[in-house]
Amino acid sequence: MFSFFKKKERYTDTNLTYSSIAVDMHSHVLPGIDDGAQNPQESIYLIRKMMEAGITKIIATPHIMADYYKNTAESINGALSILKEALVEEQIEIEIEAAAEHYFDETFEDRINNHKLMIIGENYVLFEFSFISPPPNAFPVIQRLIQLGHKPILAHPERYSYLDVDQIRTYRDWGCCLQLNTISLTGYYGKTAQKTAEALIDNQLVDFISSDMHHPKHADAFKYALRLPYVHRLLTDYPLKNILLK
Ligand SMILES: [Fe+2]
After folding, report:
1. Is position 138 within any domain?
2. What spacing in Å lies between the alpha carbon of 71 and ligand 1's midpoint?
3. I need a labelling partner for 102 at 20 to 30 A (CA). Which of 41, 71, 74, 181 fits?
4. How far is the CA of 60 from the centre of ligand 1 (A)?
C-alpha cells in the first residue's frame, strides 16, 4: 500500500462498497484514446477492480482537449465498441456507456454552440478546468450551457489549487453540480486537495462522486478510500446524485 495511506484514520470494517451509488460517472477506461487505459486488457483490469468495489454501471468519460486528446463522438464510440467486444470475450457483464470529460479550452464554447457535446444521462455535461488558472469566461459559458438545457458538472473541484471552498461554492451557485474524486480523500493528489475535498463534504457541496480511474494505482486508491470515514459518510448518509444515472 502507498506510504501516504499509512497514518490516516480508517475503519477496520472493510465491508463497505460503492454499491449505494452504483454508477461511476467519470473514468478513463476506454482503450487507447486518452491518458487512461491504453488497450482493452488494461480497460478490463480497471473495470474488474471497479466491479469488485461495488460499481454496477460505468460511464466512461475520455478527455476531449484541443491540444492533446482531439476526441470526437466517433473516436469515443469506436473505443466503446472495442471495449464492449472485449468484455463479451471475457464474459464480463457490466453496463457501460460513454460520454466525455470536456476540457474548458477555446473549443469548448464552439462545441456547446455546435451541439457536439458528449452527454451523460439526462443532459449532464462533465467538464474540467486547467490546473493552472480558472477560465476567465467561465460564467457566460456555464450560463450558455444552462440556457441550452444542459446540467453542467464541474469535475474534481478539489483538485484546482487556485480555488478555495467559497470560490467553488460560487460555481455551484451558478448552477453547476460538483463531482468529487473519491481518491482525493486518501491524499492521493496531496494534502490541499484532500482538505478541500473534506471541506466540500462538510459544507454539503458534493453532488457526484467518482473514481476518475486512469490506471491501477487509482484502482488501489479507490478501494482504499472505502476505509475512510468521509467516504463512509458519502456512501451512507449524503444526498449524492450518482444513482440518478442508473
Ligand atoms: Fe478525468
Report:
1. yes
2. 14
3. 41
4. 9
- DSSP label at residue 36: S
46 within a domain of the structure (yes/no): yes
Q: Are 52 and 3 in contact (CB under 8 A)?
A: no
Predicted confidence (pLDDT) per residue in 91-125, tens digit: 999 999 999 999 999 899 999 999 999 999 999 99
Q: Is residue 4 domain-resident?
A: no
CA of 222 to the centre of ligand 1 (A): 14
Residue 7 lies in a domain: no
Count of domains in the chain? 1
Cα(34) to centroid of ligand 1, in Å? 10
Predicted local confidence at residue 9, as pLDDT:
61
Q: Quote the CA–CA distance of 100 and 155 in Å, as a whole number.
A: 11
| Ligand 1 centroid distance, CA of 62 (Å) | 7
Report how far ligand 1's centroid is from the alpha carbon of 193 (Å): 15
The answer for residues whose C-beta is within 8 angstroms of residue 195's C-beta and 6 or more apart is: none
pLDDT > 70: percent of the chain = 94
Q: Which phi and psi angles does 125 have, rounded to 5°?
A: -125, 115
CA of 103 to the centre of ligand 1 (A): 10
Domain range for residue 185?
A: 18-245
Cα–Cα nearest to 127, from 115, 114, 136, 138: 138
CA 102 to centroid of ligand 1, rounded, Å: 9
CATH number of the domain bearing residue 189: 3.20.20.140
Its pTM surpasses 0.90? yes
> What confidence tens digit (pLDDT) does each residue in 163-208 have?
999 999 999 999 999 999 999 999 999 999 999 999 999 999 999 9
